[in-house]
Design a protein that fits this description.
Length: 322
Amino acid sequence: MLLLVVLQVIILFVAYVDVTIPFLPVLYIVVLNVLVCITFVFVRYSKETRFYKNMAAWDEVYDHSTFSEAASPFERLVQEAVNTQTERYRKESAQNFRLLEQEKDDLLSWIHEVKTPLTAMQLMIERLPDETLQSQLMYEWLRLHHLLDQQLHQKRIPFMRNDLVIGVTRLEPILNKEIRALKSWCIPKGIGFDVSLAVEEVLTDGKWLGFMLRQLLTNAVKYSEASDILIVSREVDGHAVLAIEDQGRGIDPRDLPRIFDKGFTSTLGRQEGAATGMGLYLTRQVAEPLLIGIQAASMPGEGTTFTLTFPRENDFLRITGM
C-alpha cells in the first residue's frame, strides 16, 4: 500500500515537472487509481484477515473445527503447519498422560505393598516387653503409617468422585476407630477425648470422612499436651455440625488464613521441621466434593477448633447417584 502511494506521488510529480504531460488528466487517473485501491482494500480486508482472526481467537488445544477454511495457498501453509504441530503435541500429551498414570499406579501398588510389613511391625512392637521402647516405636510407626496414608489418599483425590458412596453415616464408629488408632500416641502425652454427639448421623461418605477426621485428630494430638480434646456434634440451621476442639498451642493469627494451602507450615512448625503442610490441605480437598464446609478458629496458647458443617439432604441430590 505504501508502494502504491509512492507511485501515485511520483506520477503526479512527473506530470507537474514535465510540461509536455498534461497535469489534469494525470491527476484524474491518479484519483481513479486511489479510489479503486481504497475500494479493493475495504472489500478484501475482511476476507484476508478472517482466517488470522480465527487463529488469534483460537483457544482450543486440539480442536481445529473453529478454523475457517484456508482461502489462499499461504493460509493453507499456515493451517497445515498448525495441524502438524498440534498433532505432535497431542501425541506427546497422550504419552505423558500414560506415563503419569503408570507412575501413579506404581506408587499406589508400592504403598499397598508397604502396608504388609507395616502391619507385621505393629504386631512385633505390641509384643515388646519394654513399655517405654514400645511406646517410642509405636509413635514412629504411627507417623510412618499416617504419611503413607496421606500419600495414598493424595493420589486418589483427583478421582474421588468415582469412589463416592453417599449415605447416612454414623459418626460414633468412625470417631472410635480413629481415636483407637491414636491411642499409643495419646497415652504418653496424657491426652484424652471427650465425645458428645447430639447429632449421631450425617449424610456423607464414611471412608472419606474418616480420612478427614484422621487429619484433624492427628493435628490436635500433635500440638497438645496433657489435656482433653473435645468432640461435639450439634444441629445448626438444619445442618449437622461437628466441632473438634483442642487445648494445644493454637495457631498464629497471621498463619490462620493460610493453613489450608498446599505445603504451608506454620511458623513454629517450620522451626520444628516436622510438619509437611499436607494434612489440612488434603482435608480441604476432600471436603469440597463432599460439600462439607470446614472452618478453623484459634487463639495462640488457648487451642484450636475445627468445625465441619455437613450438607442437608437436598444439597446432595446432584451427587447421590455417584
